[in-house]
Amino acid sequence: MIDILYIVLPIYLAITLGFGLVRLKAFSPEDMKSLGRFVLNVAFPALIFHAMATRPLADVLNTDYMLAYAVAGLGILGVSYGLFTSLGWDARTRAAGVMGASCPNNGFVGYAFFLLTMPDLAPVILALNLLVENLLIVPICLMLLRGAEASGHGGIARLARIFWSVLKMPLIVALILGTLVNLSGVQLPVSVMTFVGILAASASALGLVVIGGSLASLPRGTNLSQAFLVTVGKILIFPAIAFLSVTALSGLGVLVLDDTMRAALVLSASMPTFTIFVVFAQRLQMEGFASLVLLGTTTSAFVSLSLILVWMT
User: Fold this and answer.
1) Do residues 22 and 216 make contact, with C-beta atoms less than 8 angstroms apart?
2) How many other CB atoms sit within 10 Å of the CB of residue 12?
3) Dist. CA 32–CA 214, nearest whole Å
4) What are the two backbone dihedrals, phi and then psi, of residue 28, each rounded to the nearest 5 degrees?
5) Residue 270 has what DSSP assignment?
6) pLDDT exceeding 70 applies to what percent of the chain?
7) Which residues are registered as beta bridge partners of 273?
8) How far from each other are the two terminal CA atoms of the chain, in whole angstroms?
9) Do residues 245 and 67 lie in contact, with contact meaning Cβ atoms separated by under 8 Å?
10) Which residue from 77, 118, 128, 251 has the fewest beta carbons nearer than 10 Å?
11) Which of 239, 218, 243 is nearest to 296 (CA)?
12) Backbone angles phi, psi at 217, to 5 degrees
């Protein structure tokens, strides 16, 4: 158990640092937003590009892992949508709840976590997770949000706009460029790759500090019981679905994953809700609800990730 704490505790100490920096006014919430934009638009794209350009494509395009994660993602989307509908939640709350339960923070928390537990595989796991999340899970959640807004034109046109906006994201552009470099066999200059590596190295620590700073400036919210249910869905139900999915698909012979990648998949599903959830929820005037979910999943993940690691070891 002590070994597990050595893994989880540094992550939450970095989050606590970010929280303290904002509370003590050493950094403003606007400063944290700027740092967050740097991580999302520079550091993580550099990390993804480096992983895609320098590793064998068989490692970074593990179709068995992506299939299992996609099935798990669709599973939590369906379960959470059905549960929240049966409870009579309105369209706005339901859409926000589904996103909160289905979109893990594998960028900031997940990457730092795997960097400590599986350092050689951390960039690969990050690339695989972000590919499935950004091309499947997040677009579906955005469709639900746009539907709750009751705005926009036809469904097909709306879906096309969402996917086009996703394809223009720096993370996806970096993934595509890195893959093209890998396929072409071009060897980029050492100085260029060293520069990219320096940018990539800043992603983990800065990302965690940004989370802490974001938690220090969250708006107050209501709907405690609804936020609690979303937190349970994200922290407990999603990893359970991921475990059942990979176990079932492996048992049926649909895919083959070693124990390390199976563990990575379940742990990826166990991460707290991604930080920009509050930003998306603002479109529905539900940032208070989203802030409670973000706070609940981030704090409770300290316990749940520790317990999952104990169970797996």
Assistant:
1) yes
2) 20
3) 7
4) -90, 165
5) T
6) 92
7) 104
8) 10
9) no
10) 251
11) 218
12) -125, 25
